[in-house]
Amino acid sequence: MKKWEKSVNKFLIDWKNKNGVIGALVCGSYVTGKPSKNSDIDVHIILSDKLNWRERGNKIIDGFLIEYFANPPKQIKKYFEEDFKGNHCMSYNQFITGKTLFDYQGIIKDLKILAWKYKKRKFSKLDKINLEIQKYKLWDNLDNLRDNYSKDNIDFYYIYYNFLNEIYKTYSKYVQYPISDSSRVYDLFTKRKTREKYLQNQFSDKLFIKLFIEALKIKSKDKMIKSFEEVVKHVFINMGGFDIDGWKIKSPVEKSTTSNN
Questions:
Q1: What sign for the dihedral angle of Cα 188, 191, 196, 197?
Q2: Does residue 1 register a pLDDT over 80?
Q3: Positive or negative CA dihedral for 73, 79, 80, 81?
Q4: What's the total number of domains in the chain?
Q5: CATH, residue 32
Q6: 188, 200 Cβ separation under 8 angstroms
Q7: Do 25 and 116 share a domain, yes or no?
Q8: What is the Cα–Cα distance from 242 to 261, expressed in whole angstroms?
Q9: CB 54 within 8 Å of CB 71
Q10: What is the pLDDT of residue 206?
Q11: CB burial string 113-139: b at 16+ within 10 A, e below
Q12: Residue 92: how many other CB atoms lie within 10 Å
């Protein structure tokens, strides 16, 4: 048994003696491979659906940082659904790749089956109104970045990289691709082993990857603004085009959820 596994077993001693604890699963880099010195160990503790509480915390055991999540199955299923609706897949990927430590009632087995069902579903397409709103937001970000560049503000780099991340998230939604944490995007775009680790296919638009990575590497403000414009232009073309002159959307008025007395 590896050192990290012994630490997880030590951590679980107290949990196993608690009423309503029916299973545990460990996931993350220590299970999928190649953990770094900063990697923590993720542990999901499964509680009975009869319990009405959940808990999240961290504990250092023998030098290993254990991040734990204690939830009843109904809450975990809600996390799966919320992730899917937001074009994320971390919660159900963890159950797919995770290692079952104990499963008294077979709940983890059922959750793994459910996780695979979510994994096989395609994310929803952006409807016409949301598509136009997202394109306008990209144009607005570009306009704001140009304004910042012309003023030579000190926060240009901060805004630039944040707006690049917005492009990635918006375009991912459009092509129905999972949105990942910003710390993983570069590796997912460039490393096959990282994609395998996180159960992701290659991004469908290879030219976007090329333009996006170039935009990350450039350090000169003059070149950065031009690179950003190229990325936005490419995304606009693939999303059906955009022209700010005459742009408009018409949609139904939202009904109030409160009544007038």
A1: negative
A2: yes
A3: positive
A4: 2
A5: 3.30.460.10
A6: yes
A7: yes
A8: 44
A9: yes
A10: 97
A11: ebbeebbeeebeebeeeebbebbeebb
A12: 26
